[in-house]
Amino acid sequence: MPGMTFELSEDHETFRRVVRDFAEKEIAPHAAQWDRDHHFPVDVVAAMGELGLFGLTAPEEFGGAGEDGDFTSLCVAIEEIGRVDQSLGITLQAGVGLGINPILTYGTQEQKERWLPELVAGTKLAGFGLTEPGAGSDAGATRTRAELDGDHWVVNGSKQFITNSGSSVTSLVTVTARTGERPDGRPEISAIMLPSGTPGFVAEKAYDKLGWHASDTHPLSFADARVPADHLLGERGRGYAQFLATLDDGRVAISALSVGCIQACLDMSLAYAADRQTFGGPIGRKQGVAFQIADLEVMLHASRGLTYRAAALKDSGAPVKEFKQAAAVAKLYSTESAVTATRIATQVFGGYGFMEEYPVARFYRDAKVLEIGEGTSEVQRMLIARGLGLPVE
């Protein structure tokens, strides 16, 4: 927007220092062990809640930060948590973006009062189930169905790759499902809220993932899972449109997580290049190493600028079209840069970068999914091209 600047405020930078201190003391010393054990640290999630990280976009009436918080603050928190542990970074990103925000945006007052206080406090988590074995961006391929039986929805089907969906503190998962057919023959997609413990709703065994080992991710199955009719989230038939709007925010948040990853790669590479000695001096004096680290600095500044520009547009109430384009640009560049940054950092470390005792290996494994979640790089390029007026299919 004309005249806007995208520098973080003094309050944002003060908040960054608070979150960084928490992350370095409460998360960094344990992240490697959690990764090895595939352990989801519920106690630390609760501590993040006590710090107010899950309430940064929520009103005070539900325990949130109200006017003291904003979307930019959430991005700062995700970046700083992701700088030491990408698993807990995505836990926060999904907990707010996919758990809280859809209820906050589309829920009834009764739904908000019932579900948000615990979610905002970080004592409970919620997930959002869109992806299926044969459907993700292609809503028409959704097979999960929800049929009204009197005053209840009966849900049958399955979802996959759902974050925060099967932990001991998961309170509900909102899922997209076919609830009928439109006049033009396309499926009517609605969003239904399924509380954990609902008979017929099962969070299957957690995935054995390449990365994000300390994040909670499950396939879900529904076999005649019954919930009251008032568990419809938002308008019937608008579930997919609601989720697409939710993804715009999520793309910026994933971009912030990527910035944290790049910052970690730069920090690790600088420290190692100063410490590692070869041929009578530190490897950082060699152009082959120094130039790669210089590239990390460039990627970091560019990614951070794009991320917080998009966040500022969100907070300022910019036109939806402008924000959507900025979100796609930030997500595409930052996530691809993060993957490149982990490759560079691993190369700087040489053989040690291939060893799990060094955190660079964990970041290398964690980074790839950043290019996939919340819309793949290919989807982002399609959205950007469409934003430029190109008739891309």
TrEMBL record:
Molecular functions per Gene Ontology: acyl-CoA dehydrogenase activity; flavin adenine dinucleotide binding
Cofactor: FAD
Pfam families assigned to the protein according to its UniProt record, in alphabetical order: Acyl-CoA_dh_1 (PF00441), Acyl-CoA_dh_M (PF02770), Acyl-CoA_dh_N (PF02771)
Keywords: FAD, Flavoprotein, Oxidoreductase
Domain of life of the organism encoding this protein: Bacteria
Domain Acyl-CoA dehydrogenase/oxidase N-terminal residue range list: 9-122
Domain annotation Acyl-CoA dehydrogenase/oxidase C-terminal: ranges: 237-388
Domain Acyl-CoA oxidase/dehydrogenase middle: 128-224
Family, as annotated: Belongs to the acyl-CoA dehydrogenase family.
Name under which the protein is recorded: Butyryl-CoA dehydrogenase
Species of origin: Nocardioides scoriae
